Fold:
Amino acid sequence: MAIGYKQMLDEAAAEVRSVGTAEARALHDAPEVVFVDIRDPRELERDGMIPGAHSAPRGMLEFWIDPESPYHKPYLAEDKLFVFYCASGWRSLLAAQVAQRMGLRCASLSGGFGDWRRAGHPVADGHHP
Structure:
């Protein structure tokens, strides 16, 4: 029997560390932490992003993480904590689960970029490299 998205989210939440906006803000300037925005480039352009975050669209994440892939991004091979986020936290929770299974140290921003922005934390213009 197939599982639904709620079960997938519950399973990911059991595996992946979640951080709220206050903790994420405290981690934001730490040199050993990398924020990764997995939203679509159109979302970045429309809504902005967390300053200094890397854009890694969800559809390319596994390819960008795997060093054997021709699409590998070296920053995803660094020994750092990767804080994944999306608009509300669901996509990033699943993305963090996959990244963690691929060997990265991960956390997911619960409440996502929406909670970050509502908390009054800094927002940069969105761009997609």
Q: What stands out?
A: The chain has a mean pLDDT of 95. The chain has one domain: 16-118.
